[in-house]
Design brief:
The chain is α+β, with helices and mostly antiparallel strands. It is about 25% helix and about 10% strand. The chain has 3 helices and 2 strands. Strands 1-2 form a two-stranded antiparallel sheet.
Length: about 90
């Protein structure tokens, strides 16, 4: 190695462990329920009134294991495109 060469090591980023799921709020239920009828369980970015779901609501659902990030939106990188998990589907069974 010469003076101009640097080695950069990337560490693997693991998602935080899911917290105790508990009971979802009304907003979380409305958000998650809409993924039940979508292909692949895709969750909406906007509510039924056309308002964007808050990032706090989406991240809370991810943290509790009810939703997971699906893919990055290259046109809107700040938008979280997520899908329903099996745990999220389980909220509506029974």
């Amino acid at each position: 190695m010469n003076d101009r060469t640097r080695v950069v090591r990337l560490r693997e980023v693991k998602p935080p462990p899911a917290r105790s799921a508990g009971k979802p709020s009304k907003t979380q239920v409305a958000y998650l329920k809409r993924g039940l009828e979508q292909p692949g369980g895709k969750l909406p970015l906007f509510d039924l009134q056309g308002q964007r779901y808050s990032e706090r609501t989406i991240r809370s659902c991810i943290d509790k294991g009810w939703a997971e990030p699906w893919f990055n939106n290259p046109l809107k990188p700040d938008w979280l495109v997520c899908k329903l998990t099996d745990a999220g589907r389980g909220l509506f069974e029974g």
